[in-house]
Specification:
The structure is a single chain. By secondary structure, the chain is mainly alpha-helical. The protein has 6 helices and 2 strands, in the order ααααβαβα. The protein has a two-stranded antiparallel sheet. The model has no long low-confidence stretch (mean pLDDT 85).
Length: 136
C-alpha cells in the first residue's frame, strides 16, 4: 500500500532535494497510466473545476517549483497530483482530484523526474536580476 503524500508534510521539508525524494515515483517511461481511457483524464483537465483549483494552487505556491521560494517558474506551470490518480478517482470524484492538500506546482522537467527518474534534478544557481538583463 502506497503512503498518501500531503502538501502539509511536503512543506515540512526544507530543501528542493528532500521534497523531490518525498514525491518521486520511480516509474517507467512508456508504461500506460490511463491507456485507452486517456480521454477521461483529458476531459477532467479541461473542466472548470480543474481550472479553478489549478489557479488556487499556483497562487498558494507562489508559482514556484515544488512550492520552493527561489525556484520561480517562468514557463508553463504544471500542477502535479502528489498521489497518482486513476480512472476510478475521476469517475468517483475522489478528494485526490481537486483538494489542494494533494497538489503541488512543478515544472515540466520536475514533473517528469518525479514520475520517471531515480535521481533528483539539479537546479541552476540563480543570481539577482539574471532573468532581467536590462537591470544588470
Amino acid at each position: 500500500m502506497m503512503k498518501i503524500r500531503t502538501y502539509t508534510e511536503l512543506m515540512q521539508l526544507k530543501t528542493f532535494e528532500e521534497r523531490f525524494e518525498y514525491l518521486k515515483l520511480n516509474g517507467s517511461v512508456g508504461v500506460d497510466t490511463f491507456g485507452f481511457d486517456r480521454y477521461i483524464n483529458q476531459t477532467f483537465y479541461r473542466s472548470t473545476a480543474w481550472k479553478k483549483i489549478r489557479d488556487i494552487v499556483i497562487v498558494r505556491d507562489n508559482a514556484c517549483d515544488l512550492g520552493m521560494l527561489g525556484y520561480e517558474l517562468h514557463d508553463k506551470i504544471y500542477i502535479h497530483h502528489m498521489n497518482p490518480i486513476t480512472v476510478k478517482d475521476i469517475v468517483s470524484v475522489t478528494e485526490y482530484l481537486t483538494n489542494p492538500e494533494y497538489l503541488i506546482c512543478v515544472s515540466f522537467s520536475t514533473h517528469n523526474a518525479i514520475h520517471y527518474s531515480s535521481d533528483c534534478i539539479r537546479k541552476v544557481e540563480r543570481k539577482p536580476n539574471d532573468m532581467c538583463p536590462w537591470k544588470k
